[in-house]
Design brief:
The chain is mostly helical. It contains one helix and no strands. The N and C termini lie far apart (36 Å).
Length: 57
């Protein structure tokens, strides 16, 4: 599960789902979509476990 950081509120509804509708009429939908995609990518980057691989010989 990801952690909401300060400033993430604008990308989420109260139930934690992502907000794909722009926050206001002056916000371009395509720009907002890209911001949400980048925000979701940031979640994924922070959720990936860091695994140390060892080669067995």
């Amino acid at each position: 599960m990801s952690i909401l950081r300060a400033g993430d509120e604008r990308f989420h509804y109260s139930d934690g789902s992502h907000r794909w509708i722009p926050p206001g009429p002056d916000c371009d939908q395509e720009v907002w979509d890209e911001q949400v995609r980048q925000h979701k990518h940031q979640h994924l980057r922070n959720e990936r476990p860091k695994v140390r691989l060892r080669h067995l010989v």
